[in-house]
């Protein structure tokens, strides 16, 4: 289905795990009827353990709890951890479950990368934050910088519907929840999803429309930046027509190869006036952007081939001047206080030996959508973990506690 713009919402920005986890767990503890969760990663650490406990407590007091995880991202949970949830009544579903081959995870592509929580059909959370302690500041220098939003209002019905649509093959019964659609604020919002069927380019299209319409400013903070040729061209064109285009990218990456790929694109953007900052305080894991004084997006989608052409993703598009300014002030603070600015002079040093790589990268970004189309595009495949019963979902998880 195609989602529509919804009027009358409220939105709250949540920065990093310090703001996100307490709020999500508080809402789960207060849930009366239903909790829907989709996530890429759950680690068996203090965050994952707290999530497990609040879900178990909710299920034990009669709340319907449907938890869907990715078979690649959440493959290291112990069977004990999983069994405790399932025994308490938590319905656990695994997207694309596949056993390891010679100890290696084989389900590499077309992952469930969405991060969604819906409470009682009244409140939703959408963003890029997984359930792991590396999203907390006390994790150390490799703690991740990331974002999510809490929303109420008519758009929650769309998030609820999207989550149930994904889970439908594994659900024991349809949901009895009728989401509230009354107006609660002044924010206009649109749910945008990416899948491997009719919505393969929806999130990319929202970015393209915002960049083309921008007149004053465009700020993109994205963890894994290796977008397709269309996005690169429109960013450059925006800078050429006088828009201040600012990119905040990884300077202290959790995956060094990701920064290496991004840097191959710097010369193309810098020479037409795009400003590039590398965030160096901690690994950047965010996927946020804003344009002019009203448009913004927060979600799970990186600007790389996996997110734009393979994974299942979910972003909220937000039209709200106050939210836009709040996000802008925060990102400008990151750029000025915790980033190093990349100059064209620095990038062109050694250009002669990088030129062939840059040439290949541009052609790769231009052709990747067609290349991705050659990968097997299976329908969303979910399997549920059943008590005391082996199956494909159970085979994803380890036999013992992670070391």
Give the number of domains.
Answer: 2
Structural class, from secondary structure content?
A: alpha+beta
Beta-strand content: 15-25%
Q: Shape, please? A: globular
Task: Tell me the quaternary state.
Answer: single chain
Q: Number of DSSP helices?
A: 12
User: What is the H level of CATH, i.e. the homologous superfamily of the largest domain?
Assistant: Endonuclease Chain A
Q: Low-confidence parts lasting 5 or more residues at pLDDT below 50?
A: 399-403
Examine the secondary-structure arrangement and name the CATH architecture of the largest domain.
2-Layer Sandwich
Please give the number of β-strands.
16
Helix content: 25-40%
Write a compact overview of the structure shown.
By secondary structure, the chain is an alpha+beta fold.
Essential attributes:
single chain; 403 residues; alpha+beta; Endonuclease, Chain A; 16-stranded mixed sheet; 12 helices
Topology, pairings included?
Layout: E1 6-15, H1 16-30, E2 34-39, H2 46-60, E3 64-70, H3 79-88, E4 91-95, E5 116-119, E6 123-127, E7 147-152, H4 155-167, E8 187-194, H5 202-213, E9 217-222, H6 229-240, E10 244-250, H7 256-263, H8 266-270, E11 275-279, E12 287-291, E13 295-299, H9 305-309, E14 313-319, H10 321-338, E15 339-342, H11 344-348, H12 351-372, E16 382-384
Parallel strand pairs: 2-3, 3-4, 9-10, 10-11
Antiparallel strand pairs: 1-7, 1-8, 2-5, 4-16, 5-6, 6-7, 8-14, 9-12, 11-15, 12-13, 13-14
